[in-house]
Write a structure and sequence with these properties.
Diverse_CBS-Domain, CBS-domain, CBS domain, CBS_dom, about 140 residues, 7 helices, two-stranded antiparallel ribbon, alpha+beta, CBS domain-containing protein
Length: about 140
Amino acid sequence: MKTLREVMTSEVEICNPKDNVFEAAVKMKDNDCGAIPICEGEELIGMITDRDIVVRGVAEKKPNSTAVTDIMTENLMTAGADMSVDDAAKMMAENQIRRLPIVDGNRLVGIVALGDLAVHTSTEDEAGYALSEISEQQHYHH
């Protein structure tokens, strides 16, 4: 059974608490991604998503200079690198999560996107189920 360590992206672009929304958006564009973890040193403190920028930033008329910490998602669900891919897919489906930060304690060591699980899982049923469950729901966490 594959673990998240085998499928996670370990070179993760991050923002620090001093970064602003504009800088986060540029990192998303440059890295073709929809979420950037926010880390203080190596400690994961939140994540900013493209949806956070739209809903908590633009829709609330906050300037691009707004700190990422003002609109980031906090209290993230995370997983350890030794969690199985199948267990992660189930957790992501049950909690409507598209991107799962991988931590060692509070230290960010990687990230797994739902698409990573669909590509790497030996039983594509779990990742496919997770994708269909998340896609059908109206709310998203991160």
